[in-house]
Every structure is written in structure tokens, then in C-alpha cells.
Design brief:
Blueprint: H1 8-36, H2 39-70, H3 76-80, H4 97-106, E1 110-112, H5 113-124, H6 130-133, H7 144-158, E2 170-172, H8 175-189
Antiparallel strand pairs: 1-2
Length: 190
Amino acid sequence: MPITSITTSTAFDLLLSEIDPHLAELQSAIADAAKRGAYDKVGQLAKTAQELADLKKELAAVENRYNRLIETDEPDELAAEGKRIRRGLKTPQDAYRVPILQALVALGGRSELHPVLERVHELMKGQLNEHDLAVLPSDGVTPRWRNTAQWARNSLREEGLIRDDTPRAVWEISEKGRQWLQEQRKAALR
């Protein structure tokens, strides 16, 4: 895939997903070293694993910071030229929170990216506007709503509502996410 067709969200997902296999290898090596009684090695490996886990959290925070920075208020002329759209024109990230979690529950609690996004699209069809349905100028293919949903997923992950220890492009609701969704349903009934 040419670098120009990779969205920023995809780039962050790829970068973050590179850490998971290394963490899995380290966990296996830690278990092996513990079985052998090589406790010095266990300590070294555990320190490396902790640093990688911390790096993963830091990268997710950078991704969210980047997202906040690019959602700026810009004049309408820039939006008309196919650049970033003005804040408030697209459906906000927060609107995706409940549909993402609902989609995950409907898909058994865990799913790959595309089925989740297809389900989110179905749930939000009546809410998405022309700006959401327009393609991103950065790649000319991805609808803006998909990108916004992926950013919302990162926020959910940071809050612990979606697990952060899944393989690349796999989303899984956490127990905390199930509880939060249940609270939202109860609040909606009041």
C-alpha cells in the first residue's frame, strides 16, 4: 500500500499493532525463564515488557492528541477545497461511543475492524450527514465517518471500555465497557 493511501488512523493502528507480537513473545519468554528458575532473566524481560506496554499507552495518547489538534476550526473556503472541514460539520466522536459498543456486543463482544464498522454504519445511518459520508481528502477513498469512528474507538480504549490487548484490527469490549453501555441504556429509558 503506497504511503499516500494510508490514513493517519491506519498508521497509528499499524504502529500500535507491531507492539503486540513482541509483548506476546516476551510473555512466553518470561514464563519459560520462570519455569527454569532464571529469575534474573524474568526481571529483565518483565522490565522490557513493561516498557513496551508503557510505550503502547504513550502512542495511543499521542494519537488522541494528534486527533484533537487536527480537528480545528477552519474557514469554509478550506473545507470547499477538500481540506479539513470546519469543526461542528461532521458528527462528533462522542456520538460513535454507544454504537461501537452496541456493535461489539451484537458481534459477540469481539470482532475485526470491518464488521464492527459495517454494524456502526447501520446503527448510525440516520445520523450521518453529507460531511460524514464524504471521503477523506488525504486518501480519496475512506469515508470520514469511518475515520471518526476509529478515533472514537481509541478514546474508548484509553478509557478501558474497549480492551487494549487485542491483536491488530481486532476490537473487543471490556467488562467495564459492558457496564458503561448498560448504564447508558438505563439512562435512555428514564
